Amino acid sequence: MRPRTPVEGRGIFSGTGLIVTCLAATLAALVFPLWSYTDRPGTAPDVLSAQTLRTSHGPLSALDQDFLTKVRLAGLWELPAGRQAQAKGTTPAVRTAGRHLVEGHRFLDERVRDVATRLNLALPDEPSEQQKQWLDRLDRAQGAEYDRAFANILRRAHGTVFPVVAQVRASTRNSLVRELADDANSTVLDHIKVLEATGYVDFDAVARDLARDSAPAATAPGPAVPPPSSPSPDYTLPPPAYSPPPD
Predict the structure, then answer these.
(1) DSSP assignment letter at 219
(2) pLDDT for the residue numbered 16
(3) Which of 69, 180, 83, 81 is nearest to 128 (CA)?
């Protein structure tokens, strides 16, 4: 057998090196995407799920999207409810609660629409059927019956959404949603306080509703709550948790 010349030997080694280089490149192409999505912050496997959207402000989870929708829906019915309370409320405390609802949800509605636009997310344009039923009930109520219905329906609704805001704030990886959750948390807490300050809230009924996770409209009305006494001259309510626009 004829021995290989030095030139022929270099050809064999060059061909082998080319094959090894190609195999290494192929392996790198397969491994890199796995590394790029598992090792980078904020790109856990669920980020790639169908319910989560990628945005320049961080992943937008299904819970985040539901939160934005709920904030928008709250404004669509609580704004008119607040305006109505300013006109139909029979006590200063009820009318003040109505004013807080108007100022708070005007502020939050502007915020959520801005966030949704920046995240390219569609929002509803009218209240849900249940929220329409609550507004219809308030439309029919008059006098002290109205005050009682307003305070309890709105207080139960805010009590239901309050833990949702906390969950979103604790879990979201989206910076815009995180900031909105901060605003929503302060606003919802302010509304809970002013509604309780009316003296009409039936806390036993609220506890029963939240315990069985039922909607306020589907709950039988609790025992009648006596009208609140007239506020004393130094009667105060907690200030809004935001700076409302000047009238």
Answers:
(1) S
(2) 52
(3) 69
Ordered alpha helix ranges (H), the chain: 6-38, 62-88, 92-118, 129-140, 143-171, 175-196, 203-211
In single-letter form, the type of residue at position 242 comes to Y
Q: From its phi and psi, is residue 19 left (phi > 0), alpha (psi between -120 and 50) or beta?
A: alpha
| Buried b / exposed e along 224-235 (16+ C-beta atoms within 10 A) | ebeebeeeeeee
Contact 9, 17 (CB under 8 A): no
Q: What is the pLDDT of residues 27-63, one digit of tens each?
A: 444 433 333 333 333 333 344 455 899 999 999 999 9
- Nearest in space to 161 (alpha carbons), one of 112, 228, 224: 112
Q: Looking at residue 230, what is its pLDDT? A: 40
pTM of the model: 0.67
Residue type, 166: A
- List CB contacts of 77: < 8 A, sequence separation 6 or more: 127, 128, 131, 132, 134, 135
Q: How many CA atoms lie within 13 A of 136 on its CB side?
A: 8
Share of the chain above pLDDT 70, in %: 66
Contacts of 189 (CB under 8 A, 6+ apart): 162, 241
Contact status, residue 108 vs residue 183, Cβ threshold 8 Å? yes
Question: Residue 215, Cβ neighbours under 10 Å: how many?
Answer: 14
* Alpha carbon distance 228, 237 (integer Å): 15
Quote the CA–CA distance of 186 and 237 in Å, as a whole number. 15
pLDDT of residue 9: 52
- Tokens 């069985």 correspond to 212
